[in-house]
């Protein structure tokens, strides 16, 4: 007992964070880049291959369909095989498929490789959220998730700069710039996957850098969150009201987010009138703003012990940004809308995952995170397709943004229902 009392819990959590979060963040950075880099390839790739906005929208969205279909089986396998081996497998296979995008010539090749990319990556993100729940107790989980999750917006910094440089290689070695983009941003996933296999520990009990007393302290803190025995029944997890509500919020908000992201450089170029290089740097600055907003939300919500005000406020502000874009703003108001969007969207999705780990017990965590993410990916499948159809029909982004405003308002209504459920459940 005296040995347990002597344990510095904050130091244990800091050590765990430094050992695992940078590596997982690097992995997510590569994942985010490989699923989203078609947004930079789109303009020249579509022109070279004769792809319409509808073809591009189907190819952009079909990734999320396969991701959703294979999400739960992948997370169940991660729990059985171990995070280190399964995340490494995910990364090596998606890296090879992402690089193979350079060989696309026809719409069906585009659809097929995007579908395979989603299948390969399925389970990565919810698997990491589940994995972090094995290391960080609920009171510290918001900070842990936000420090991992900032890799998403930070990827914008890297992607905005790297994509412009790779596209500038157009003609080198007989390859188009968009082909260099896919191979140059796909192959690093294989290298990071091998690093994960070498460095990522499976569970706290197996690591040599925690003492027996520190492992016992961590197990006690995690045990206070609920019984650790896993429950792999997807229907049982879906029967949890919080899972269903969070999944519906994710379906609407994630669908809107990826619909915007997959056309982001084209939208910004149209709004500002800027060429590709300045737009790339603008996306990079947006990534820094998004990372700052996410860290602020994770840290402050842990400190005050509540998530809901952040979810409500950020969901409303992102809806306001979409509404500004829908009004066909000039450069000044377009940049204002973009600033609101990048500063707040990360808080929407971060709040979903913080609330998921708060409201769902450890027994259901693996399948619950996969279920919420699978529902979210369904929205990301349909959104880009509807956006492409609307753009081909009207020749502009205007009607597409009107749809995003409606989706965000619907999500805000469900957030209000989740707030009532949480209040009643206490």
Care to describe what's here?
The protein has 426 residues and is mostly helical. The chain has one domain (8-203, 218-225, 232-425): Growth Hormone, Chain: A. Helices cover 82% and strands 0% of the residues. It is built from 21 helices and no strands. The chain has helices at residues 2-5, 9-36, 38-49, 53-69, 71-81, 83-100, 107-121, 124-133, 138-149, 151-167, 177-186, 188-199, 212-223, 234-238, 241-261, 264-272, 276-304, 308-326, 331-359, 365-394, 398-425. Helix 2 (9-36) packs antiparallel against helix 12 (188-199), helix 6 packs antiparallel against helix 7 (107-121) and helix 15 runs parallel beside helix 20. The chain is globular, with a radius of gyration of 21 Å.
What are the secondary-structure elements, in order, as H or E? HHHHHHHHHHHHHHHHHHHHH
State the end-to-end CA separation.
32 Å
Instruction: Report the β-strand fraction as a percent range.
Output: under 5%
Q: Please work out how many helical segments DSSP would assign.
A: 21
What is Rg?
21 Å
Helix content: over 70%
Number of strands: 0
For the biggest sheet, the summary is: none
Number of domains: 1
Rounded mean pLDDT score: 86
CATH architect. name: Up-down Bundle
Shape: globular
- Annotated CATH homologous superfamily: MFS general substrate transporter like domains
Low-pLDDT residue spans = none
**Which structural class should the secondary elements be placed in?**
mainly alpha
